[in-house]
Amino acid sequence: MAEILKVNNVSKHFGGLMAVNDVSFSINEGETLGLMGPNGAGKTTLVNMITGQYLADAGNIQFMGHDITKLPPYKRCKLGISRTYQIPRPFPELTALMSVVVSALYGKDRTNQSLEDAATEATQYLEFCGLFSKRNVLGKDLTLYELRGLELARALATTPKLVFVDEVMAGLNPSEASKAVRLLERTKEEFGVTILWIEHVMAALMKAAQRVVVLHYGKKICEGPPQAVANDPYVIECYLGSCHV
Amino acid sequence: MELEVKREKLVLRVGTQKLEWHIEPRYWRNPAIYVGALIVLSVLVYFFYPTLLPTIIDANLLAAIAIPLGWMTIGTGRLNFGPQFYIGAGGYAAALCSIHLGWPPFVTLLVAIIAGLVFGLLMSPLSIIAGGLYYTLLTLLFPLVFLEVTFIYIDLFKGDTGLFGIAPMVNLGSFTLNQLLLCLMSLFMMLVYMLIVDKILRSKFATSMAAINDDEEVAEAMGVNVKKIKIISFTVPAVMIAVIGWFYAHYYGTFSGITYLPLTFMLKVLMVSMIGGRVQIYGNVVGGYFIAFLELLLINVVGDYSPVIFPVILLILLLTLPEGLFGLYRKRHYREYLPTIHVRR
Lengths: 245, 345
Hints:
Chain A is α/β, with parallel strands linked by helices. In chain A, 38% of the residues lie in helices and 25% in strands.
């Protein structure tokens, strides 16, 4: 499998706080990579650097052979990077359909796509995420589970090669959480995307991820198959407490 | 022959023949009816009450300022508190060229457009680097700074006396006929602006503006070139507002910053936007006419107290009608954002 993303020694600090410290890893095409760590480990900061919300203070990021370290977020999106948010960030005054239309129109380089074509495409992604019946509901009126689905539909509408999924199960009840995980599995099967999945729920990552990277206080402390990571004594000490999985 | 007007149809009986026309509710939403009504109003006022023509011109120009301001607000996601800066830029550019170079109005129009473009481009980075209160305060400050400049360079701008001797826009020999033609020109300008902004707000460009307005960080993550959209949404409306400054200069034959640059004029423009219904371009027309006629009424009724009572009435309306006057109509309809597409399975 070819390498799709390579993160080399990236660091980010906010004043005196080192949020991400010399982190390196790579993702292969078609893989599901898990990213885990305690709260404040720097997971979301790392994702923000890869998607362009923050610029890295040191290091470089290569995506599909392009150096994207200094590129603005919209250009990274057009190259094929998309994301969902840990706390859903819908467009509150746009309907679900129009939110996905924005991604369909601007998330990829397709010149002269009409609004109607984008809407047709958007409905397909909404249908895939089970939100077609909610297409005319404003973003602020959707439930948490529906917002997670909308985030995924919005991310998929940009036709990404790499999707960052940030704690998709957070705040959902067990039934909704399992539906969300199945949706991610179907996403991989249907669209063939590479997924970087940030998650606290180890059981979900154990089933879905081929590899897991663990961060702690901004540093990478472990990388490997889920079972190996779960049994790593330092990971257990830093993150899982004293229980073995 | 008998004509019967019912709620949803017109019935004409001629002898034994009966002709019916069904009037669909959507026909009343045809803008042509209201455009025609405004033109007819101007002509009727010319014949029966020509002293009202300047008020109608004022209403049209206020609406014509508020319409591009609405586009600027949606596109940048910020409210510009100093649109009068561009009126000053366009007005002074046109006035100086008319007085010192003897250029006719339709040549000074190009100068006003260039002035609006230059200042719009120079100031557009504000919409990228400044946000919230900082953007508001900076845009509030610039017209006041411009006003001070007109006093500092008094030889050029003539301070509060202003520039006079500007070539008139039209000269048909009769004052009231000139007023009618200027009224129709101002109406035409307002309608053109409404058409342009309406087209833009129904286009796919508007989806990016709507996304920026809601959450620009997420919009950029979804592929929207936020900087480009903001610069376009700032600069083009600035040019449109500068053209209104050109119109004011050639309409009155004088141009003074003290009339347009202070906060009082800004208040009128913002109230047109708010009273008409926030960022509703059709509502800006309602707001423009409302503000212009209310001001005239207060001057005639309460005279010297109108500068106090006018803002009080507007504040009361803002508090009791947060959606504005046009919002009363919009409230009945499903709340749509711009643009909207309805899809059936």
